[in-house]
Amino acid sequence: MTAPPSRIPHAKGTAGGLRADARHNRERILAAARDTFAAHGLDVPMAEIARRAGVGVATLYRRFPTKEALVTEAFAEQFATCVSVVDDALADPDPWRGFRTVIERVCVMQAADRGFTAAFLTAFPDAVPVDGERARAEQGLAELVRRAKDAGRLRADFVMDDLTLLLMANNGVTAGSPEAAEAACRRFVAYFLQAFGAGPAERTGPLPPAPSLELRRLFRPDA
């Protein structure tokens, strides 16, 4: 005898398929958000992210009710990496090397993903995990600065706003490929670090190789 429609055996499987679809949509949204934010920053409309993910706007808002929630989840791994970089530097017995390593690695992350820096510097009141990670990283950076100054390796007039200045300037570094952008970033940061140093040993040394950059890119970054 045929079972009543309400008790067809594969009904449970159908529900499971819907849950799998929901997970798949979530992963597609996050992947599209990371790629879009990395290329264009955080000002991209949510509708554009939905389009790139191949889902409806309603589906996106069902998974992520606010842009803050989407940014928090999209950059969770990068924030964890940033905090890990600071923790590793704090464990380094050489205060100048620890300070320098954090600056170099964070700036390279920024060159590869502009959206991450915007997320790090932007206060999202609804994004508690982001605020917590940012606060921890900022406290670690302040401690690295104190140690480097106490060791006489970092100039006494250095202030935390100088790090913001560096990130703002580094955000303007553009190149024709990700490899060239990273090379340009490393050389640019090396110049800044020499300016931050307190003594001859910190202000000298070979610079990373210079990338091939064309002046016309200053006026046409996409050329």
From TrEMBL:
One Pfam short name: TetR_C_43
PROSITE patterns: HTH_TETR_2
GO molecular function, one term: transcription cis-regulatory region binding
Name of the protein this chain belongs to: AcrR family transcriptional regulator
Keywords: DNA-binding, Transcription, Transcription regulation
Ranges where the HTH tetR-type domain occurs: 23-82
InterPro entries the UniProt entry points to: Homeodomain-like_sf (IPR009057), HTH-type_TetR-like_transc_reg (IPR050109), HTH_TetR (IPR001647), Tet_transcr_reg_TetR-rel_C_sf (IPR036271), TetR_SbtR-like_C (IPR049445)
Native species: Sphaerisporangium krabiense
Residues of the DNA-binding region: 45-64
Alphabetized SUPFAM superfamilies for the sequence: Homeodomain-like, Tetracyclin repressor-like, C-terminal domain
